[in-house]
Amino acid sequence: MKIYPDTKIYIICPGKQHSGGPELCHQLCSQLISLGVDSKLIYIYTPASFKSDPVHDFYKKYHLPYAFNFEDEPKNILIMPEIFTGYFYAVDKIQCVIWWLSVDNYLKSIQEIFQYFYQNSLAAPLTKIFSFHKADNEIDHFAQSEYARQFVKLNGVPDEKIHMVEDYLRQDFLSRAAQVDLSMKKNIVAFNPKKGFEVTQQLIELAPDIDWRPIENMTPAQVQKLLAAAKIYIDFGNHPGRDRIPREAAISGCVVITGRRGAAANDIDINIPAEFKFDEKTTEPQGVIKKIREVFENFPAAYEKQAAYRARIFEDKNRFTEEIILAFEIKNLPPPSVAMIQGVGEKSFLLAKELFRNKNFRPSFIVDDVMASTKISDKLIFREQNRNYLRVGQNFIEIITREDAKFLYLEGRIKKFALIDPSDAEIYDLQRFYEPKAEDVLIYELDG
Questions:
Q1: How many helices (H) does the chain have, and how many strands (E)?
Q2: Taking the alpha carbons of 146, 151, 154, 159 in that order, is the dihedral positive or negative?
Q3: Contact (Cβ atoms closer than 8 angstroms) between residue 381 and residue 391
Q4: Phi, psi of 261 (to 5 degrees)
Q5: DSSP assignment string, 35-71
Q6: Per-residue pLDDT tens over the stretch 177-202
Q7: Are β-strands 381-384 and 387-392 bridged in parallel, bridged antiparallel, or unpaired?
Q8: Which residue, 165, 224, 238, is CA-closest to 1?
Q9: Starting from the edge strand earliest in sequence, which strands make up the sheet with 381-384, in order?
Q10: HSE on the CB side for 439, CA within 13 Å?
Q11: Which of 75, 136, 169, 333 is the most core-located residue (most Cβ within 10 A)?
Q12: Average pLDDT, the chain
């Protein structure tokens, strides 16, 4: 799929919702922008009362532009998760992409129409279960998982129209998980009660002496704390794609035990040894209990056996970026984006002008906690979509908080930090708070 210098990419996403699908949409938009592509989220299902602020609080740190409609032009691209394919009937010229985040959710969305087919499709996808008013060869397909890729291919889509575009765990989560002390792990089995609970319930009844901990009614921090303490995470759900919680559990030091449904059936999406996967149709629950007790008894050995799974998860972010570059045939990467961290003031004005003259960098952000959160609009501050921008000549630089700057650095949106004539205290604060690589720090002198 080719993009042009003036191509605009729109990604359909539910507004004011916090779940796995919307997070993937924000990740894709964020990475496209970091690669120099004009991209926006199209928020849908947004009540009128939220129109002035459709962004869920959890995603505001991504600092992404949004719209409620798109320009239906041949040079532009509309990306829609599989459950929003009804938008095909609202377009004429724009290039369309289906992003298969969840095979099963798509099948459920057409369950009433294809009741019989749906009941059998999870085990053996049909040769043809979807068709849209556009010719199939006009539609590109992104697969978030190998499971989705196989499904789309089985539905007759040629290989050249299928692109792997997966996802990744947030870098702030990975950073915290890296601090988990494996020696402090306890004989706890964590599970998601919304997934495969009919199997989990049997296990709980067979082994009430085991400490079973459901992941429910928890904040993200509480989930991470539980996973950091548990030795095992089990998931006998349908695995509609590369689910997040199994990956979060693995990175948090849990040994992952799954069934063989959906994405868990192949050795790419969940690449753990076969001894940790149980076919719910043929395995006696006692076999799962036996494996759990084995892991409790010899946790270090079981943990080491899943090293390849954890390694793949750590590689997800870089692979995701490479997949986007390949899918959109991006040839030229933009100059690295820069955040100026000395706040809105004379130094930042001088530094911004220098960076704009340099043209080897993109001055994208100014870090200032007070100015970022103040509702102000004057000749120097421009406010749009509830975000503030500093005017520097004909250019606008977004003002963000320190916490958001740290998040965007971990995400890769911010490539460099810049200071002009910094004090020792400012350099120390930069190193302590952002922990940047040495090559990611630019220092300019007022006299030079």
A1: 16, 18
A2: negative
A3: yes
A4: -95, 150
A5: TT-EEEEEEES--GGGTT--S-GGGGGG---EESS--
A6: 889 999 999 999 999 998 888 899 99
A7: antiparallel
A8: 165
A9: 381-384, 387-392, 395-400, 362-367, 337-340, 416-420, 441-444
A10: 1
A11: 169
A12: 90
